[in-house]
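We read letters as residues; the integers encode the fold. Take this protein.
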Amino acid sequence: MSSITNCLWFDGQAEEAAEFYVSVFPDSSVTAVSRYGEGAPFPAGTALTVEFQLNGTPYQGLNGGPHYTFNEAISFSISCADQAEVDYYWDKLTADGGSEGQCGWLKDKFGVSWQVVPEALGSIMSRDDAAGVGRAMQAFMGMQKFDIAALEAAYRGE
């Protein structure tokens, strides 16, 4: 059976990025590193590929050069159980040069896009009260990091 691994193209920061990501996510590790030899586009010894797992999902970082960069067309979504998890991932991933976006989106310091989404958002948005759902939607459209208490209050009309 074949498997699918997410591959992220970096311009020399693949190993640094992998180490950063495994420090943020539980049950994560770097599993293998291959290195460039002499005469390669990067100095000998620089990581060519870095294989790592984030919470059991396989990834590969490739130091391919400056030819391609990340954009919001691809992002990774983190489902968070509560506000503490939202705050944790938001703070970790925006640290040291990351940037906040709208509606739970952010870019980390490597330019990778993430969605930090509380599970409560799906619950709120699937309720039967269309007016409440509309108020919650208006509230989250104005947020950067999701605030679960504010979403619930907006749903209730407070």
Summary: The CA atoms of residues 70 and 111 lie 6 Å apart.
